[in-house]
């Protein structure tokens, strides 16, 4: 789960950038990369929170 969050930090901004370039040019590519980065950060934070919660349970 944690590795998926780390990998997403690289893959999602790249996919967002490519999708933005195809749909609307360079400025949309930058917006897509930003949205992909935010989504990847949320995924990483969710995975980290799940690991912390799982380790605290007894």
Folded structure, characterized:
- With 58 residues, this protein is mainly α.
- The protein has one domain (1-57).
- Helices cover 93% and strands 0% of the residues.
- It is built from two helices and no strands.
- Helix 1 (2-24) packs antiparallel against helix 2 (26-56).
- The longest helix has 31 residues, at 26-56.
- It is rod-shaped, with a radius of gyration of 14 Å.
- The two termini are 21 Å apart.
**Mean pLDDT over the full residue set:** 87
Strand elements, count? 0
Task: Please trace the helix and strand order, writing H or E for each element.
Answer: HH
Unreliable segments of 5+ consecutive residues: none
Distance between the termini: 21 Å
What's the shape?
A: rod-shaped
| SS field, number of helical segments | 2
Share of residues in strands: under 5%
How many separate domains?
1
Main β-sheet description: none
Evaluate the radius of gyration: 14 Å
Structural class: mainly alpha
The percent range for helix content is: over 70%
């Amino acid at each position: 789960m944690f590795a998926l969050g780390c990998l997403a930090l690289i893959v999602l901004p790249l996919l967002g950038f490519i999708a933005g370039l195809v749909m609307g040019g360079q400025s949309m590519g930058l917006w897509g990369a930003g949205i992909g980065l935010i989504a990847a950060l949320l995924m990483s934070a969710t995975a980290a929170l799940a690991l912390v919660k799982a380790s605290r349970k007894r």
